Amino acid sequence: DSGVTQTPKHLITATGQRVTLRCSPRSGDLSVYWYQQSLDQGLQFLIQYYNGEERAKGNILERFSAQQFPDLHSELNLSSLELGDSALYFCASSPQGGDTEAFFGQGTRLTVV
Amino acid sequence: AQKITQTQPGMFVQEKEAVTLDCTYDTSDQSYGLFWYKQPSSGEMIFLIYQGSYDEQNATEGRYSLNFQKARKSANLVISASQLGDSAMYFCAMREYYGNNRLAFGKGNQVVVIP
Description:
- The complex is a heterodimer of chains A (113) and B (115).
- Chain A has no helices and eleven strands.
- Chain A is mainly beta and 113 residues long.
- Chain A is globular and about 35 Å long.
- In chain B, the strands form three sheets. In chain B, strands 2, 5, 6, 10, 11 and 12 form a six-stranded mixed beta sheet that branches.
- In chain B, a hairpin with a 2-residue loop joins strand 7 and strand 8.
- Classes of the chains: A mainly beta (113), B mainly beta (115).
């Protein structure tokens, strides 16, 4: 158990819909990262938050947004979903700025039908 | 440009034998970290081992060791005494500390351990 909790584990939704993925980092970790894993793109970094503030942005679509709350949990919002958004979405957390560790949650498998 | 390269095809390994997974990386930073993760068929990403660019000794964690050759920009993972539970995808990743601090992943190596 990595200590990073993601909910839900599985999500099936229709095109055009909006979903929210939730992540609770390990106790004490200030950084939260979101990654998308798809068959064609592999593991892609989406966005990082550090202590409530956006720290870095990767290949995140404009239809996607995220935030980190005062209790340090994070949510990834995906809207106007397309078939191509079907993927495994991971959250990872690191202490401080994230030097030597990055522990991943079990992922949320999103299927858009 | 691809920062992490893992080019080995899927591998079959006999139980109890050692296996080496190749990883080469590309960076102009002096300060970076190298990570290996295991992803079994259940999907979770399991952190295995970390090597910092300034670490002079190769990292080891139980049956996992990282063969770090800085001049060659190589960070190979060695799994000793393979077990059936080692069957999984293995990903090499790098974090550049003067960049945006994200992890950049390779495409992974598939390992199947056979009895």
